Write a sequence for this structure.
């Protein structure tokens, strides 16, 4: 019954809503993700700079990538190719393209309505823009509860099971012992709060991402002469024009879109929670950074996995097996048996950072519901216990339930995005106007948005001057600009 409900909600209704609204946001914003595409790299470079005592935009990006770049990039892509053929990759790209605009607006709104937490840091996300933007406290509470249940508990248990059993298969490690070690490492990280979580993500996310991309690019490089033909196969299969995969057209669309949605998480309402923690000069800058995150997740990492599988020679139409096995065997077919171990180690790093990300989502939702310190410590204890318990239990039923709650979570977020879209457009236009005026780093002036419920500590009425002096009014002494 859970599988039937989940298949209808996440496999049909949610896909239509996410792709439909993402397309609407894309058209209404005049393709914001394409207009700012090259600007993304400049914003990414500027994001490396942070303010003392605050989290930088880069740290928020690494934290969001900790969640976006996970098992879905290895197992999810393998499942999509297995069930949908090479054409599924094309529809993953399409989903990511429209998802970049959804991510821009949800993360921009998260920045607009973020709140200072009293420790020099910020908190925000869909619950905050629902409460302060829509004035719907009950809807915000529902979102927070769904987020806490889905990411704070269910997905953490499932990921614990995934990583411990992957290491058991590769190195014969005892799952219970691995679960205990994992819980200890997580406890050390949790104690330091969001700053330590961000610091660990800063270290592990680039390592896991670059190492995985490097190995997959090596495989692609060894088969470079076959890449043009494989890309042609992907495009033909996406429209049912390749005879070998003609019968998979429907599956290619469904699996490509579905796996794309759950790989990059654009529109689901999870990434805005970490996007809000960054100290930035303008909400639009964080929207651009998070759109870049979707690009990196799908167009780079998922594509690397797909080409690894399709070029290895191991994959054949009608392959039966899970996505992790397909990826492991595809890499092993090119580099030898150590490829299976590499995938297991990569998956372990992916899952570990995903657990950190999921924990923070749970903590953020709990902090929205209550600031009670005892509640936070209880939550941390439950998470660590769940990691150990999950390492020994097959939580597939729990995962099916979590898929349903995550779909409900996405419905609430998408509804809020649609209702707050005009606000998002106002902020985007302000960002665009400053860039057209020659300001490389636009600054958010909250006095222009006095009708919105903004936190004066997060967005003071007199913001610092814009980045480039040449964009300042002429005739004003430099010391007064």
């Amino acid at each position: 019954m859970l599988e039937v409900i989940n298949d209808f909600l996440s496999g049909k209704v949610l896909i239509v809503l996410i792709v439909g609204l993402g397309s609407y946001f894309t058209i209404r914003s005049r393709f914001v993700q394409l207009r700012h595409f090259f600007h993304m790299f400049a914003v990414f470079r500027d994001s490396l700079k942070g303010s003392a005592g605050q989290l930088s935009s880069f740290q928020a990006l690494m934290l969001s990538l900790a969640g976006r770049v996970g098992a879905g990039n290895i197992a999810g892509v393998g499942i999509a190719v297995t069930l949908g053929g090479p054409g599924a990759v094309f529809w993953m790209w399409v989903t990511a393209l429209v998802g970049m605009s959804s991510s821009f607006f949800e993360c921009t709104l998260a920045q607009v309505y973020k709140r200072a937490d009293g420790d020099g840091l910020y908190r925000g996300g869909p619950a905050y823009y629902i409460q302060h933007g829509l004035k719907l406290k009950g809807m915000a509470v529902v979102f927070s509860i769904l987020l806490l249940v889905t990411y704070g508990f269910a997905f953490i248990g499932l990921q614990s099971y995934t990583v411990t059993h992957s290491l058991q298969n590769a190195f014969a490690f005892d799952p219970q012992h691995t679960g205990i070690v994992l819980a200890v490492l997580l406890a050390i990280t949790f104690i330091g709060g969001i700053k330590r979580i961000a610091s660990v993500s800063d270290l592990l996310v680039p390592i896991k991402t670059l190492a995985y991309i490097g190995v997959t690019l090596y495989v692609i490089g060894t088969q470079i002469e076959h890449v043009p033909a494989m890309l042609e196969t992907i495009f033909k299969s996406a429209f049912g024009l390749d005879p070998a995969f003609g019968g998979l057209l429907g599956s290619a669309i469904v699996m490509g879109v579905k796996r794309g949605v759950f790989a990059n998480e654009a529109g689901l309402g999870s990434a805005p929670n970490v996007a809000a923690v960054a100290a930035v000069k303008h909400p639009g800058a964080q929207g651009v950074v998070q759109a870049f995150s979707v690009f990196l997740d799908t167009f780079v990492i998922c594509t690397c996995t797909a080409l690894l599988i399709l070029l290895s020679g191991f994959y054949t139409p009608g392959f039966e097996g899970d996505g992790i096995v397909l990826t492991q065997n595809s890499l092993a077919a090119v580099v030898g048996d150590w490829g299976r171990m590499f995938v297991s180690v990569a998956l372990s790093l992916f899952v570990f950072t995903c657990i950190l990300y999921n924990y923070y989502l749970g903590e953020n939702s709990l902090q929205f519901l209550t600031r009670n310190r005892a509640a936070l410590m209880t939550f941390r204890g439950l998470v660590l216990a769940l990691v150990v318990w999950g390492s020994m239990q097959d939580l597939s039923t729990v995962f099916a339930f979590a898929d349903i709650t995550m779909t409900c979570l996405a419905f609430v977020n998408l509804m809020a995005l649609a209702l707050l879209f005009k606000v998002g457009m106002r902020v985007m236009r302000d960002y665009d106007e400053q860039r057209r005026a020659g300001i490389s780093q636009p600054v958010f002036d909250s006095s222009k948005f006095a009708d919105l419920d903004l936190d004066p500590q997060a967005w003071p009425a007199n913001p610092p001057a814009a980045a480039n002096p040449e964009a300042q009014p002429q005739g004003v002494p430099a010391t007064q600009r």
Residues 29-436 form a domain with the Amino acid/polyamine transporter I fold (CATH 1.20.1740.10). The chain is about 70% helix and 0% strand.
